[in-house]
Write a structure and sequence with these properties.
Elements (H helix, E strand, L loop, with lengths): L2 H4 L1 H7 L34 H4 L9 E6 L4 E8 L18 E4 L9 E6 L23 E6 L4 E13 L5 H5 L5 E13 L2 E12 L16
Length: about 220
């Protein structure tokens, strides 16, 4: 059982807190009622044959993320749990970064690896994931790992959901292959925040691990 699975009861209660930090002014997470949805059997979306045949990679923390289709090229920091039990979010700063939730699998391991970033960063304007909702099925994602390799993923689907109906099990539930979740805020602004979350589901591509950490999985 993964560290994420062992924390599932707490995460189920806190999932909708996770990405309320992507607000226009960088406010702290705030509680909201949530509902769960059943996980897709065997993974999320309809994988390509290459994604279906991908073998899991060795554990190695992510250090960089590239998404050519939307111009993302960012370092990745580690995120844990804050003192109040909510999941941390990256700091609101001019040169913001994406963050990997360290209690999820590393990218390429079996299970859902979770990376999040802001859509806006207060007075600094656009965040790393400002165009996340523009991704499409088949778009490529490259995650640079601490061991010097790059794990390549292909987008299987993109969802925009109301934060009050965050699909906890669908995002965090166990899957039988290596998958990736990219999450930010989205939808209309409500006060100094956003009503929705944008969730990108992706699956590891076969033969994706590369020894050249500067390489990417290519444009769509």
């Amino acid at each position: 059982m993964s560290p994420l699975s062992r924390r599932a009861p707490a995460l189920a209660a806190l999932a909708v807190l996770l990405f309320t930090g992507c607000t226009a002014h960088g406010t702290d997470p705030a509680a909201a009622p949530g509902a769960t949805a059943p996980a897709a059997a065997g993974g999320s979306g309809s994988p390509s044959p290459a994604a279906r045949a991908a073998r899991p990679l060795a554990r190695s923390a992510p250090v960089g993320l590239r998404i050519p289709a939307i111009g993302v090229d960012t370092p990745v920091m580690r995120l844990g749990l804050a003192a109040d039990g909510t999941v941390q979010v990256p700091p609101v700063e001019r040169h913001d970064r994406a963050g990997w939730y360290e209690h999820s699998p590393t990218p390429g391991q079996t299970g859902p690896s979770v990376i999040l970033a802001h859509v806006t960063v207060g007075r600094y304007g656009d965040g790393v994931f400002r165009r996340l909702d523009r991704l499409h099925q088949g778009d490529r994602i490259a995650v640079r790992l601490e061991n010097g390799t790059t794990a390549g993923f292909a987008v299987t689907r993109v969802r925009t959901v109301d934060k009050a109906r965050f699909p906890t099990e669908e995002v965090y539930g166990n899957v039988n292959r290596p998958e990736l979740r990219l999450i930010t805020c989205g939808g209309p602004r409500t006060g100094d925040g956003y009503r929705d979350n944008v969730i990108v589901f992706a699956a590891l591509s076969a033969g994706s691990a590369s020894g050249d950490a500067s390489s990417t999985a290519g444009e769509r």
